[in-house]
Amino acid sequence: MKQYLELVNAIFEEGVKTGDRTGTGTISRPSYEYTCKMYKDEEGTIHNFPLLTTKDVDLRSVFEELMWKLNGETNIKPLVERGIHIWTEWPFKKWLKETKQYDVLENMYEDESRSKFSKQWKETKKLFEDQILNDEEFCARWGELGRTYGFQFRRFGEVRFEDLDPKFQEALIFSIDGRIPNPIVEGEDQLMDAIDLIKEDPESRRIIITLWNPKDKDEDRALLPPCPFLYQFFAYEKDILHLKMSQRSSDTFLGVPYNTAQDALFLCMMAQVTGRKPGMFIHSFSNAHIYLNHVKQMKEQLTRTPHQLPSIRLNPNVKNILDFTWKDIELIDYEHDKSIRGAVSIWSRSHYLEKTVEIFALRFLLFSVFLSNSKWTSFLKSFNTWFKTCLIISIQSSNNITFLNTTS
């Protein structure tokens, strides 16, 4: 897929080295876009399907994750049951932090290059997934990703009783005799709304699915807010459906090959259930980046020559988008090079320690309130500020990013 390799080259040539929330560091380029043109022949075969050929991409995993999203799922269990582990890292990290398994967190990677996960990380993660599969209570508590893709596709804007401030909860209970509907406000089913609009008002410029809700962007609401966040369908051309997807943050090595294939497949499925053929899939990137622990892998990929794009065929009998199964997808003539592996970046030691220092400093300051002598209170406030500043500087110094030479 030439468009993907052109994106990689653009990041290397025009990107800027930056820090990031994971502590890994990236080469980032703002704003990029490419277009994938597909066409469906009279026999129902969809040609030029944008599945990367310079490494192996598992279309079954791409499909299963897509259906997980479209069904409104937010727990990793359905994915783990199918042998798909791409979302496990985030709830696993949360479980480690909240159960104070700091030794596993501190030794996440095999070495300083962060190119591979450690044996300890992999073994502990396997135990975590086993509990997700076999312990319902554990799964309900620790398997949830929160208000990310599935929630926003099918229940955007939903308000539940537990979302309310405790004072409002109490007032509501007293005002309606304890009979509280939950959810209090029904969310918007954007997937079904989009299908209805394509069928009933194809010239509409409002066939949009947005997964970005500012109220749900923080970690207490979603362990990772959606990266592909905006979908706009164009149905004004007779019998053809186009899709533009916008992505706020793009992990070019691990994420983008899946994102392009997945939403091109989403377009094909939406076209079929609305009686159309897929046309253009436009993939728009806001922040396109290469993590520094993926530079070697990306340069290896640039040495490879792309093969001809494969084709796919969907079962023509499927008319409801939620009825698709993997057996309904046929991948045709997929020629590819061997896999290239790399570790996902999710953990920042310095970020976590800074938060720990903030909590400690706040507790220390509150303790000073209990002292009646104003001189002691003033002294402790000053000491608190000095201590926090010195410790954070020390932490940041020990976690400075050593940028790789990307021009060699």
- Taking the alpha carbons of the first and last residues, their distance comes to 25 Å
CATH fourth-tier homologous superfamily of the largest domain: Thymidylate synthase/dCMP hydroxymethylase domain
What is the count of DSSP helices, taking H or I runs of 4+ residues? 14
Content of β-strand: 15-25%
Low-confidence stretches: 395-408
Structural class: alpha+beta
The ordered H/E elements are HEEEEHHHHHHHHHEEEHEHEEHH
What's the average pLDDT? 86
For the record, the count of structural domains works out to 2
Which word captures the global form? globular
Give the strand line-up of the largest sheet: 1-2-8-7-6-5
Q: Taking Cα atoms only, what radius of gyration do you get, to the nearest Å?
A: 24 Å
Number-wise, the strands total 10
| Biggest beta-sheet profile | 6 strands, mixed
- Looking at the overall shape, the CATH architecture of the largest domain is 2-Layer Sandwich
Q: CATH topology of the largest domain, anyone?
A: Thymidylate Synthase, Chain A
Broad CATH class of the largest domain = Alpha Beta
The portion of residues assigned to helices is 40-55%
Question: What are its keywords?
Answer:
408 residues, alpha+beta, Thymidylate Synthase, Chain A, six-stranded mixed β-sheet, four-stranded antiparallel β-sheet, 16% strand, globular
Topology, please?
Blueprint: H1 2-14, E1 16-18, E2 26-37, E3 39-40, E4 45-47, H2 59-70, H3 77-81, H4 89-98, H5 102-106, H6 119-134, H7 136-142, H8 149-155, H9 166-175, H10 190-200, E5 208-210, E6 228-234, E7 240-251, H11 256-273, E8 277-291, H12 295-302, E9 311-314, E10 329-332, H13 349-369, H14 374-398
Parallel strand pairs: 7-8
Antiparallel strand pairs: 1-2, 2-8, 3-4, 4-9, 5-6, 6-7, 9-10
Helix pairs in contact: 2-11, 6-7, 13-14
